[in-house]
Request: fold
Amino acid sequence: MSDLSELQVRLGYTFQNVELLRLALTHPSIAHEAGTHIQTNQRLEFLGDAVLQLILTRALYDKFPDYGEGPLTKARATLVNRRRLAEHGRTVGLQDHLIVSRGEEQTGGRQRPSAIADAFEAVVGALFMDGGLEAAKSFVLSEFAQFVSEVAALPSIDNPKGELQELLQATSAEAPQYQLLNASGPDHDRFFECSVIHGGVELGRGTGKSKKEAESNAALAAYQKLQAVNAASGS
Reply:
């Protein structure tokens, strides 16, 4: 059985209890194949998921002081999707140390992205259990530093009109109104311009190939403007 010393070097951390790391690498297929109750990495994965979310949430919170819950949630989701976690797991070589059943080995389970992603979360959980939050934080921020820094702009808002209405409803029950300002061009190549108005004040304008797109872009412009104003006023 491997002593996991090479993996610990790649993780940048030496475990006081190396059995925690071994447990983090133990795939559920081991228990299924044995037909008995054997501990696997599922509980550590559960814990690691929460620890990972906490650490990255704080990193994004500090990096983007002007953004609200919605955009921050979307940014975090891009960092912790299963594909990306599997990539991080491969970077440190988790696939070479996974403890899988014979059947899982034969079907290529060691290289399965879901297995590597789960093991990555479990390793974060093991780091937390062995060395506390600081040990987990040191590893996670080292792994994700480049990705967090590359989030130059938070993901675009999927539903600008809904986000704008939610933002406005914090201070007013009145719904925003959209007004078509201009429509031009031939039928096959139309161009629309719309504005969004709230409380008799125009909050933003947007253009698009359809009225719906123009309204959406107007809402996005208004949302970004209001967020900037709120940030500047400290609210």
